[in-house]
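Problem: given the chain below (114 residues), write out its structure.
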Amino acid sequence: MKENIIQEKSFDFALLTIEIYKKMIALNEYVLSKQLLRSGTSIGANIEEAIADISKKDFTAKMSISSKEARETKYWLRLIDRSNIVQIDVSKPLTEIESIINFLTKIVKTSQDK
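Solution.
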């Protein structure tokens, strides 16, 4: 089976998001942690749905949703980083989410051009 880079990157990112979520819960931060968990794991779930879609229109729509979720996740990570609500280093997830956003942007643009 051919490796799907964005599928793997989004899955690995979801695992990273879960780890951050657990650290935040341990520090009694429940609101931002839940927002991050929801959006950070949703990226890969929507990619999985896109891969299973039959039509190009459905594929593009699901990838667009993944892109929006990735951007929302970046927002939550930046907020966590700058608000100092918890002392967790989110530099690695911020780098990863930028890469995922770039991938998804290219995928959406390419699928719309065809």
